[in-house]
Amino acid sequence: MLYLHKLLPSLFLPIGITLILVGVGLVLRRRWLCWSGLGLLYLFSTGVVSGKIMGWAEGAGGRREGENLEPASAIVVLSGMLQDRKDAPLGEWSDAVDRFEGGVELYQAGKAPLLIFTGGHVPWRPEDRPEGEILKERAIKLGIPGNKIVVTGKVGNTETEASAVKEILRYAEREKAESKIRKAENSSSRVAGDALLVTSNSPPQSRPQNPEPSTEARPGSLGARHRIILVTSAFHMRRARMLFERQGFEVEPFPVDFQTSDRPTINVLSFIPSAHALAKSETAMREGIGILYYSIIKR
Q1: Whether residues 99 and 114 fall in one domain
Q2: Domains: count for the chain
Q3: C-alpha distance from residue 295 to each of 244, 249, 254, 290, 292 (Å)
Q4: 21 or 179, greater pLDDT
Q5: C-alpha dihedral over 35, 36, 42, 43, to 10 degrees?
Q6: Euclidean distance between the first and final Cα of the chain, in Å?
């Protein structure tokens, strides 16, 4: 299924559309189809078009000040910033390194007691370590305590990342609730014991009854809405926020890794095609396809 999620959108991206139009044009001997395909490829390869599409994907606004954010249950950093290499024990950064830096910045600012990295992993590279494990090692080297960092299991896309984070916080909540119960029961036992010692020489009718342990924190009522600070690339934030909110989270977005400038300019170079501009167009369009898929097909 993951292969289909990664491959099918390619048919609706500029290169895929171009190949289809040119192929059909050659088979049917329709030159206008061939030229249409090449024309679309040119447009999506220019900076002026790719900038507009990426600007839509990133939405309004810019980089937020971490100090102005309200505290949350956890800081969640999505995978997609490392390349695992045998000759680099801690991997090599990609352009999305801002995700890691943003998460570390927020934790060091005291915005949450827990830092969660997702264990990004793809089935066609089974020998690679989950990305979150490497990120945890890097974060520890920067002084973040290891017991404050959690890594999800292996995840292949944003939907499974959201589900894995939910299970982590449910487990943490359950552990916290059970700890409260144990403390309440121990406290009740001590109070009852002290009361028996004090009243051992009193008439029976004056003996206090043993208090029942508190049930306020009993596990089972795990419906609390966790507030998280979500850190991912700006172009990916809209889809990621939607999927995390579907899991019941209250999401505070912290977009990073912006692909568009806050002072855009148009010049002659904006109309010259480049591989970089084409890649930017395809990245933004892939996000649009993902949003449509989860909004219409997989509600």
Answers
A1: yes
A2: 2
A3: 13, 17, 22, 8, 5
A4: 21
A5: 150
A6: 17
